[in-house]
Write a structure and sequence with these properties.
Four copies of one chain form a homotetramer. With 336 residues, chain A is of the alpha/beta class. The first copy, chain A, has two domains: 149 residues, NAD(P)-binding Rossmann-like Domain (Rossmann fold, 3-Layer(aba) Sandwich); 177 residues, Dihydrodipicolinate Reductase, domain 2, CATH 3.30.360. Helices cover 37% and strands 24% of the residues of chain A. The first copy, chain A, has nine helices and 15 strands. In chain A, the strands form three sheets. In chain A, strands 12-11-7-10-9-8-15 form a seven-stranded mixed β-sheet. A six-stranded parallel β-sheet of chain A has the order 3-2-1-4-5-6, with helices on both faces. A two-stranded antiparallel ribbon of chain A has the order 13-14. The longest helix of chain A has 21 residues. The two termini of chain A are 26 Å apart. Chains in contact: A-B, A-C, A-D, B-C, B-D, C-D. At the B-D interface, strand 7, strand 9 and strand 10 of B face strand 7, strand 9 and strand 10 of D. Strand 14 of chain A pairs antiparallel with strand 14 of chain D.
């Protein structure tokens, strides 16, 4: 029994997903690559051996030869396409964010709950990264004692071309918002946000530093720095009452040359999280095959909370004051 | 077009290969798991969803519903089963060693050359490990300058139960013999072997230290220490005229606890080389599909040279003197 | 020309200073060890070969056979003893803080300025630590570009016995307040303070997290965690527009044992900062000999700013809001 | 009671020793700097505040205002000057080697034993390096179990101008010969030596690899590579039956810049071993003051064994065969 998958959006993310589906997921078939640009769709389809290409996402979702949908189109289309997939009764892996605003996230949640069974996995792939997994395991098995603080650092060489002022909070930080919630198994109650005065806040990629309080009593600190220049670098430390743990990034060589001992950074996120994407997509395929959400995967509720937190972060930065994050009980539907 | 694979041998290695074939190789099907013990075969077959089990390896190789054969049976059966596969016209991935003695390796080479096309890939998976790949790339792109020395360290917690005196040279070291030849793109001309006087040389796992000279003018040093106690640890450094490079093992977390900052070793090789096995088997599947050997993969000639080097190493240790390793030109058949 | 030094206070800090003076400072003589407890004074004096002991600090400062005074008595006595030394015309190395409140610090400043020449060095020894020195050099030589963020982590195994609720801010953090000001060559304009909700804030050693804004436009983040359990650990990273730098602590060995690769933490600060104390005291001796303050040393103004920042930090934590730190121009007297 | 020291030889080593004596050793006075070149002597004397300069080493040793002698003159003068100091009844710290040939070392030993008390400390400063000290402590306290192998790597950017062919063995390796003997508390029984065929063995700085067997049953491997290009780098690992330990060099910063995470190497040995020299000279001053050799310091016997081992190494390399190192019991005089 093969699962026929449509990838919607053939940009960097969509192309990567297409490669994983075609090359690393036994049981999956890359059925359609859909993009507004037929050239772009064709290029990815050819590279990966997709069976067909398309330009209309809604028609693609509706096709009878498509069993499941991977959404990697622009952020503002995520919610509408996810809703279409739910209506069509087809499981979705939706790249983050589920939607750029929390109201649209809630619409997806309502639709999915009404449908009576889970359809949506959100692409917070860090939950599958072996280093976060080990961090969480060390907390869960008691090695670290009770969690107290978590420090997160998210750095890019330079901001993507399409970035505008606050996307450090709305587009980059959601990865940290989600993975810290996941590791700590709690939710946020407030957020404060700071920006170095020396930077132009309206400039794309201006660094932001956030301090979040959790219902579990921890502080979660997040630096997002999309103009870090020196390399793609995601770091993290979880501090417990008995010890702490740092994430290690995969680095394959240490080089001695020119009076330096050095390890290399990649210019973007792909080498750092290649294994996380592969494992995430494998887990999603299991979910499609069985109808059972994979335990660590992010669902629509997690997507909603990440977006809600980002909205509060934007408010906190503009007000220069702690912003409350409205609490809400996770519906039973989303407890798995 | 799906490739139906028989795995022969359902021990630790065979089971790992079965998992990779079933879980990570689109285009492959785990057709048969064959083991002298039907219980063992069944256990692995059930875990991985194999279509059938068997106990007779020759009959398994001959089955018309088997397209390719992965040999993970005891070392002394490797050559005979590989020869059977060649006769049956079926591609083979043979776990190392190709054979425990060089004469049997030569028999495989003759059969394969007579058959007129390549059938055999040898399971020297380190060639696919990202850290060795990066080491080789840094040599090939000139970063390190001309190679001068290579230091290799191969340590196990304790020797496997079936280990006897010289298997450090004949069973463990071939991994280093092969990967250093591969990285340096040369071959050995001599080997010297030393053993700490304080250890009982007949004892399984007694450490051995070897110094090899290459046709390219380098020294290749190898410590094999199967009683290293502290963890599975493979290290390596390549020293060139302009710089050097160390292999990094994948480690996902750094833990602070109890007055220590620590990273953990696994008790065996699997986490260290999981990615190498996956990539190796993927490359082999391409070879099966296309008939074209994967460029970096080890072939029967490489298997022969590793076994020949081990034989010289045994002689060097017993004589306490440098042993010459007979040179031979790689046949054109094996240049790819 | 030998400098005869009185050490006032023979606790842990005073004893360490006595050892440095006696064992590592050519040109210095340990003339008197003074402590309220004559036994404690005698013990340190005997270990270090001091010429005399005493119990009255003011009388000790006044002795004609004492050329300079090192103050390592309890915090609340620092200002009064420093003032006495200024009156006696004798140079002082005063352990931090210069005084627990900023008003007393200002009194020292007034007295020193009235005296017309510098007498006071404050024991912010981190300025002499080779790792902070290298961090600062990398900023000053342009390697890092303009400074944007500085992350500071100050962790102890457990809080000292005499610690009470807010001493994380008033006693521990001043080291970070001072060294970040020093590295960045700026001063603070505001401080925000957070505490994990799960800890009892009145408990000694409860962790505190602070975010400071600087006149130079940087954010300075400080974790003080005196109940970190796993070891004494001071970390720091300075992030600039072109790169970042981490402090490395001195660690002499990496140990492989018991499935771990580990480095050891000391239970307290002494091994981490031994070299910094030695270099600081050597610089102070030069100051005593020449009358010229050592360029990187902390003076009374620096001591005042650190205490003022701590006072604002206490206010910020109790109000749950950003506290302004009153700016003031560094007097010309303290620019060297 | 002040010790008046003459430094003989004002080259790089002599100047460093003069700085340590003048700046870091309370109780010592830099009385004379003696060098064949009066300009060189004057330069060092002025920098360090020496009381006098001289050009005649024998006359300097004989001066009544000189209590002890530090010999940092060219290697071939070491033995004669050390003998002169013994005759004058003055303690000596002699830079390594004690003499370039073992016969001269034996002459020093005879003279010292005839004199009836110890006078000579040899400048094998690595015994005082904190990383070797920790390595030895981990062996001595049982953490590592019984020692099995020791790997040593000694790399320079480029060979000193005065280097000729075999000085890798006779001049560089003695540091490793001595420190491995010291750490393992044993002596050598044989040495084998190898050289990469691709290098011109007569060329200064050609790399050499040595394997030594010890009376304690260990293998000691040594790479000396004086043309390593990338930096001054001394590494070492001691492998025991229960675990292993690596030396850590002091590095104060880790820098992220230009797609690299890097630590810097110094171009020469001074930063790596600054602390070892300081502690060595401090220990020697105690020896001068008390007449009791410092427990870990190298004495004339150790100097002799290092030179004898180097002589065997030269023979082993030229013969291409294991060379026996003649055993001899350490005289009671040298057991302390």
């Amino acid at each position: 029994m093969t699962v026929r998958i449509a990838v919607i959006g053939a940009g960097i993310m969509g192309a990567d997903h297409a490669r994983i589906i075609a090359g690393d997921l036994p049981g999956a078939v890359l059925q359609v690559v859909c993009d507004a640009s037929p050239e772009r769709a064709r290029m990815v389809a050819e590279e990966c051996g997709a069976r067909d290409i398309a330009t209309d996402p809604l028609a693609t979702i509706a096709r009878s030869d498509v069993d499941a949908v991977l959404i990697a189109s622009p952020d503002e289309t995520h919610a509408a396409l996810t809703l279409a997939a739910i209506r069509a009764g087809k499981p979705v892996l939706c790249e983050k964010p589920l939607a750029p605003n929390s109201a649209d996230c809630l619409r997806v949640i309502e639709a999915e709950m009404r449908a009576g069974r889970p359809f949506v996995q959100v692409g917070f792939m860090r939950r599958f990264d072996p280093s976060y997994a080990e961090m969480k395991a060390l907390l869960d098995d008691g090695t670290l004692g009770r969690a107290v603080l978590m420090h997160n650092f998210h750095r890019n060489v330079s901001a993507p071309a399409n970035f505008t002022g606050l996307m450090a909070i709305t587009n980059s930080a959601p990865h940290e918002f989600d993975v810290a919630r996941f590791v700590l198994d709690t939710d946020y109650t407030s957020i404060s946000a700071f920006q170095p005065a020396g930077v132009d806040a309206s400039r794309a990629g201006a660094p932001v530093f956030m301090v979040l309080e959790t219902a579990g009593g921890q502080l979660v600190n997040i630096e997002v720095n999309n103009t870090a220049a020196y390399g793609y670098d995601v770091r993290g430390e979880l501090v417990g009452e008995k010890g702490s743990v740092f994430l290690n990034a995969p680095v394959h060589a240490r080089i001695n040359v020119g009076l330096k001992s050095l390890e290399r950074y990649a210019p973007d996120w792909r080498p750092r999280f290649a294994e996380a994407y592969r494992l995430q997509n494998k887990a999603w395929l299991r979910f499609v095959e069985t109808g059972m959400p994979w335990p660590v995967a992010a669902n629509a509720w997690d997507g909603y909370r990440a977006t809600l937190t980002a909205e509060a972060g934007v408010k906190a930065l503009s007000n220069g004051a702690r912003a409350v994050i409205e609490r809400a009980e996770r519906p039973a539907f989303y407890r798995h």
